[in-house]
Amino acid sequence: MRITVSCFLLLLLVGGSNALSAQNLIADPGFEIWDPSSNNSPPGTLSGLTHWYEANGTPDHHHVDIEFGSNLTLLNPCPQGEGDSTCGMPYEGGGVLGAYKGNGADGTREWAGTQLLEPLVPGDCYEISFWINNKKDNPDNLFETNQWGVFFSDTPTPFFNANLADYSLMADQWVATEMVIGDTIWHQVQFTYTAPEAYEYLYIGYMGNVSNSTFTVANDNFMLGFYVWIDQVVVERVNVEVPEDMTICPGESITLDFVSNYSLSWTDGTTSDTTRSVTVSPTESVTYYVEAIGNQGCTKLDAVQITVLEPPLLDHPDVLCTASTPITVGPNTENGTWSGAGITNNTTGLFDPSLSGAGTFELNFSDAGDCTNDYAVLVEVAELPASELVLDEPAGCAPHTITFTDLAAPASAEYEWTFGDGTVTSTASPTIDHTYQTEGDYLSGVTIIYAANCQTTVDISTPIQIFEQPEASFTYDPRGVNTLNNDVTFENTSTGPIYETAWTFGDNTSSMLFSPLHTFTDAGAYLVNLLVEGPGNCVDSTSQLVLVENAVRIFVPNVFSPNLDGSNDVFNIGFAGSLSDYQMQIFDRWGGLVFQSNNPDQGWNGKRQNGDPAEQNVYLYQIEYTLLPATESTSALPEVVSGDVLLLR
User: Fold this and answer.
1) At 444, which CATH number?
2) pLDDT for 157-204, tens place per residue?
């Protein structure tokens, strides 16, 4: 079992490191291994180095053995704040890397590349550090910046334009310092990095997007830029090695050795310690979790599982009872011993249930030479129980489902159920559902099989009564109903035995009559429901939607005599139904408006709009109204009635 815990953080220190010794994946961390004959015109390129090369631009190799132009003139310390780049010493050894970043977002980046001694392990945490100082530290001519760091890749040189790339798209491949490197003091920068892939190459130099950096430049001369020295590059994997998972016999001891170049701690969930070798004798299976702890925050967690061999527990295939004949629970052997209640022969494993009595027994076999051959057999012995058979609902309406349950028998029993309707079903469960399709009275029973030679048959005393289910249905007449023809006869056409009926008409009224007559007073859609009940409280219901349309009748006279004799003095309509948006207009024969009204109860008294009596003549009337409420077959569009009326004087 392998478990990895990693982290990501950035530390910056001035001075030395107290890191434990670990394998550095950089073959030449101090830029020392070089061929002087190939690098005798300093500052030289990296061509003379054995393990470093130019990954981008032309980074420089400086060495104290190169005198002219090496920038290493043994002045230690180098005067600060004077911009003196012709002095200084490497942090260690004789070589340093000179790396440059040109002015501007597209300024040249000088990267040195090297192949790691081994590929990164995806998911593992690495501690990275190097020493750096700024060789352009003149306060009157400042060129200082942060974002010096490393980039990991699976190619020897960048697969992209290192000077123009968007580094936010490759954020999981590089780390860089946030500190601005602005003086000639050697600073150690430290990082942690969790590898997403098995990268094989490292580039070192200026990383990230310029827009995210913090820098100071003396001027915008594109020929100038930032220049640093880098020394002692370290990439170390925080790792721990643990033994392979192992299996031991009970009572055995084992020594566990944990190997790491870092401090470590381990725990088994009960005990914790920091020792690297521990002898243990667990009584049960246990996992030892071991964590290596790096110097910069990286951790690596691994584990070793010690399995204490427990004899496999086998279930005997048969459920026995105290009346069963003796059986052999395991193979005959001369290299081991059987033990346990009811064992009558320790060699053959003969077991007598009459001696053990009822219960569950673990019979153990111990091999004389090898604990991996040990095993145990679990045998269940049952008394013949007094069955406790229950039916959840022994009476109901067809089709009716009853749940049969044996509350007393063990779960390992098998059952042969007889339901009294000609159906016989075998199950391995003490619970079964059975559906009776037709009315009638039924008697049921069950045979309980505990084992091949241990079974009993029981008659179920609870009677089963199934009632016929009524089926509700109805028709109604007339099919077209409106507010002027609103008496509806409902005919109950339900089948089966029916004791009671209950109607609801959807208008907050109801009836208990078998086939009622109902009057709908208002237009609308009414959900009529019929519920019928038969013997055994068997019920059924059905519903239909009855649509009552709105209807209006209008009666318009063709003559009236407004002579104030009390008879036929007003021209008015008669109507039945509900009107809305009503308007009546009276016109003379030239089309002039004589009278109008929005009230169906207000008629024309034979006067013009100015109050003068209208002369005897024939007049045109026009009546508009809307039927309300609108239903599925009536719209809210106005209806128009027009005609002639004779005014007599």
Assistant:
1) 2.60.40.10
2) 999 999 999 999 999 999 999 999 988 789 999 999 999 999 999 999
Phi/psi-derived region of residue 54, left when phi > 0, alpha when psi is between -120 and 50, beta in every other case: beta
Find, among 411, 467, 459, the residue nearest to 441 by Cα.
467
Instruction: Show the domain range for 330.
Output: 313-382
Nearest-CA neighbor of 445 among 475, 419, 472? 419
Q: Do residues 157 and 198 share a domain?
A: yes
Q: What is the pTM of this model?
A: 0.52
Residue 425, domain member (yes or no): yes
Residues 43, 183 within the same domain: yes
The count of residues in the chain is: 649
Tokens of 113: 């590349």
Answer whether 206's CB lies under 8 Å from 88's CB: no
The string over 550-587, giving b where at least 16 C-beta atoms fall within 10 Å of a residue's C-beta and e elsewhere, is bbbeeebbeebbbeeeeeeeebbbebebbbeebebbbb
Q: DSSP 3-state assignment of 47?
A: helix
Q: Are 240 and 298 in contact (CB under 8 A)?
A: no
Q: What is the reported pLDDT for 198?
A: 97
- Residue that is written with structure tokens 């043994």 in the block: 74
How many domains does the structure of the chain reveal? 6
- Tokens 């051959």 sit on residue: 373
232-285 per-position pLDDT tens digit: 999 999 999 999 999 988 888 999 999 998 999 999 999 999 999 999 999 899
H or E segment to which residue 234 belongs: strand 225-237
- Establish whether the linkage from the previous residue to 399 is cis, with ω within 30° of 0: yes
> Within 13 A of 572's CA, how many CA atoms are on the CB side?
13
Cα separations in angstroms, 221 against 105, 143, 205, 224: 13, 11, 21, 6
The whole-angstrom separation of Cα 46 and Cα 143 is 24
Q: Are 409 and 535 members of one domain?
A: no
> Are 420 and 319 in the same domain?
no
d(CA 129, CA 144): 20
Contact 174, 209 (CB under 8 A): no
Same structural domain, 581 and 615: yes
Return the pLDDT at 453.
67
- Kind plus residue range of the DSSP H or E element containing 356: helix 353-356
Which DSSP letter does residue 109 get?
B
Residue with tokens 């399995």: 307
Closest alpha carbon to 294 in 116, 118, 126: 126
Q: Which residues of the chain have pLDDT under 50?
A: 1-20
Amino acid in the structure at residue 348: T
Q: How many CB atoms are closer than 10 A to CB 115?
A: 16
